Structures are given as C-alpha cells and as structure tokens.
Amino acid sequence: MRPVDGDIDRRLVILLDYLLPRGIIVISANYRLLIPPSGHDMIEDIHTLFAYLGSPSSELNIVLCEHQLSLDLDRIATFGISSGAYLARIAGVCNTVLPRPRAMLVVSGMGGDLLLDHWISRKEGKGRRPVSEETAQLVERMLSGEEARVWSDLSLFQGERSEETKARQGLFITLYNDGEILDHILSLPGISARLRALPHTSRLSAIPESKRHLLLPITPSTCPTMVVHGKTDTSVPFTEGQATYDDLGKMGVERELVGHEISDPVRMGWGEGWEEEFEKVLMWLEGMLRR
Fold first, then answer.
1. Domain count, the chain
2. Of the given ranges (2-16, 25-39, 239-253), which has the lowest mean pLDDT?
3. 261 assigned to some structural domain
C-alpha cells in the first residue's frame, strides 16, 4: 500500500470508515509510474495485480484465510483518482484482466480523451505551470537518463515536501507544459508534436494501430462505470469525464455521471460539505458489488 499523508490520508479514512464495516475489503496497490515505464508497463502491472488477487497461494489470501476472511473474486471493483484512474480503467476495459471487475469508479480521471489539446499542446505564458529551478534541473536529469535513481518505483505521497513528491509532481507539470505526456504513455517520442498539427478528429488515425489500445477505448465488455468529475477541473478537464460517459453509452455499458463544482481532484469528495455526496457515490459502489 502506498504511504499516505494529508488529504490522501483523509480520503482513505473516509473510504475505510464506509466500506470496511460493510464487509468490503479495500486494497491499494503500487504500480510503476510513468518514465521510464509506459502504458505497456502499467497494463502489465494491472494483469500482475489481478493474477495475485486470484491466486489462492498469494500472501494476501493466506493472511485473509488466517483471519477467516476471503476475497470474493466475482465481486471486485476498481477505483482510481486523477492519473490513477488510468490504472483503474485498464482493469475496467481490458477483458484480458482476470478476474473481471464488477464495477469501475473513476474520479477526475485521465483516460477519457488523451488526444485533447489539453494534453498535447505546448503551454505558453500564463498557461505554463510553475516549477522551481531545483526541481526543473532534477526533471531534466530524469528525462535525459542522467539521474541514476529509479523514480518510477517510488511511492508518490510521502509528505508534501518530500523529494519524491516534488520530483514526481515536477515531472508531470513539465510534461504537461511541454505537451508530451502522450509520448511517454505510448512510448512514441515525438507523437504529440505530430498530433498537435492535426485537428482533433484526425488524431486517432495518426496513431499506429499497435499503440491505440494504450488509449484504453471503451468496449461492450467494459464493466458498469460511475464517472465523478469536477466541471471546472483545470488539471484533468471535465471533457475527459464526459467523453468516458459518452463512450460508455455508445457501447451500451451501464453508466452514471456525477458532475460537481469542486475543481481540485485531490480534495474532491473529501472537502468541506461534500462528504454526504461522496457517500452516495460509495453507496453506488456497494450496490454494484452486492448485485
């Protein structure tokens, strides 16, 4: 489980307080973070995770058995926030991930439309987000391969001012400012630059067919999904959540969309006055698991 701190700790506590008394086990898994890993590695990690959950000989299942508990492999849900929603989406849309989850909950999640200008355009002037000079130099070393430390295997949230947190957040901001996040997800250097010269409707066809699965398209076998997204979110635009919801409808998948007015995906759902609404989201999740 990833170390938690501050707002991350608060929202985990709310999840546990609601779900554990209802007999729902909460599992938070580590996975490899972007650079040098790509979307290919993240898909591999999710397959590894679900194979681990399904193995009777896994350490987790052995410990649960010692406490007269067990996982119901027919009642698994996947849940992710912001960039973590990309990982949850892998489990929800890839029918090679077994056992198949019964429901998916994505909160302010990436993956609905990674071809938006928001992700591939180079930001200029006030559109660029600030990064300290120290962090910028570290990120430059990470991207060039000069930094020996393997940052992709480090947990992100170890305190607001930890070196790991600053490095990972600085990396994301740098890739966002330069419009190159998709280069690393697809492991295709320069693809963002080529795509930004095309209209949005022509971008998908410009991506090699062998890489399109990394965009995690919704399919008819995608599990029932609830999309929760801030209408004024500036980190992951509401357009992403709307695109996921629309694609679910086109594929005939059961869906729910909850749009809210809180723009910060870190505090969304756990900020003042929103706990009651978020409890309704957890009620939906519980209901799907108990079908």
1. 2
2. 2-16
3. yes
Q: Are 106 and 149 members of one domain?
A: no
Question: Same domain for 14 and 78?
Answer: yes
Shared domain for 283 and 157, answered yes or no, is no
Residues 54-70 pLDDT 10s = 999 999 999 999 999 99
Q: Is 14 found in the same domain as 67? A: yes
Instruction: Tell me, yes or no, whether 43 and 157 share the same domain.
Output: no
Q: Domain range for residue 190?
A: 117-210
Q: Are residues 184 and 220 located together in one domain of the fold?
A: no
Residues 62 and 147 reside in one and the same domain: no
Average pLDDT, stretch 42-60?
A: 96
| HEC sequence for the chain | CCCCCCHHHHHHHHHHHHHHHHCCCCCCCCCCCCCCCCHHHHHHHHHHHHHHHHCCCCHHHHHHHHCCCCCCCCCCEEEEECCHHHHHHHHHHCCCCCCCCCEEEEECCCCCCCCCHHHHCCCCHHHCCCCCHHHHHHHHHHHHCCCCCCHHHCCCCCCCCCHHHHHHHHHHHHHHHHCCHHHHHHCCCCHHHHHHCCCHHHHHHHCCHHHHHHHCCCCCCCCCEEEEEECCCCCCCHHHHHHHHHHHHHCCCCEEEEEECCCCCCCCCCCCCCHHHHHHHHHHHHHHHCC
- More confident of the two residues 44 and 143: 44
Question: Own/partner pairs for 135-142, CB < 8 Å, 24+ apart?
Answer: 135/166, 135/167, 135/170, 136/170, 136/174, 138/166, 138/167, 138/170, 139/167, 139/170, 139/171, 139/174, 142/35, 142/167, 142/171
What pLDDT score was predicted for residue 6?
39
Rounded (5°) CA angle 88-82-99: 5
* Single residue among 162, 182, 210 that ends a domain in this structure: 210
